[in-house]
Amino acid sequence: MTEEQPVFAEERRQRILTMLESQGRVRIAELVSLMNVSEPTLRKDLTLLEQQKRLRRTHGGAIAVRPLFEPTIDDRFARHGAAKDLISRACLDEISPGDSIYLDGGTTVQRIAEQLEQQPVNVLTNAIGVATALADKPGIRHTLVGGTLRSLGGTIVGPVALDTLSRFTVNVAFISASGFTEDGISVADVADAQVKQATIERARRVVVPIDSSKFGINDFVTVCDLGPIDAVITEHADTQIQALCAAHGITLRVVS
Predict the structure, then answer these.
(1) Phi, psi angle pair for 86, to nearest 5°
(2) 3-state helix vs strand vs coil in the chain, percent to 5
């Protein structure tokens, strides 16, 4: 069996740009595996491409200079499925019988709803997919927030949703994000960010289930800084993420 040959510089850089065009972001760990070259070599490639203004460096990788539009929920479900399954199963440990919990519109969070057993919990949600997953589980009481349907994400948003959320308090809120950095967590849509912010204010405990592809990414709008976050559950966290969580008193749980 012959050893795979490393990809040469020009081809490497073009492949990096092609990946950015299709998925909006790349991570160095992913590129090392794909291109059979060292991390320092790839860091030099990313630095050169950034100098040419063809990408923007982030912690652990790079993002497109012009961010992509938000992917559809079907596209998001198809990405990093194995990691999301691991993370969502681990989230079940954060739920106790009798709890009131909030499940938002993230694809990892929807997997929590699908895996919830019929136990006495109250679920508040602004996600159509979560409500649908719970509809056939009569042992679980759930409330779907009213408001304006945002079809791209399958979530309920807007002034009515924000007013409704102000009337509830939950033990645990599971808040998804498409970016996680030292600045906080972020998402692609302003209306979704507002709903997440309102929920965080009404939650006794905030848990962020997030796969490692989101680390080092600043998406369009910040939801909150790291202060209100009590726990992060992920499938992989490097030393910088570990240090960041430790500095902000965030419980970090890495599942495999």
Answers:
(1) -60, -45
(2) 40, 25, 35
What is the spatial order of strands in the sheet that 61-63 belongs to?
Answer: 25-27, 61-63, 56-58
What pTM was estimated for this model as a whole?
Answer: 0.74
Can you name the residues that pair with 5 across neighbouring β-strands? none
Distances (CA, A) of 8 to 42, 64, 145, 227: 11, 22, 53, 44
Give pLDDT tens digits for 206-221: 999 999 888 877 787 8
The answer to whether 175 touches 52, Cβ cutoff 8 Å, is no
Going along the chain, which residue ranges are E strands? 25-27, 56-58, 61-63, 100-103, 122-125, 141-144, 148-150, 155-157, 170-174, 179-181, 184-187, 203-209, 221-224, 231-234, 251-254
* Cα(127)–Cα(124) distance, integer angstroms: 9
Q: Which residue has the tokens 């790079």?
A: 62
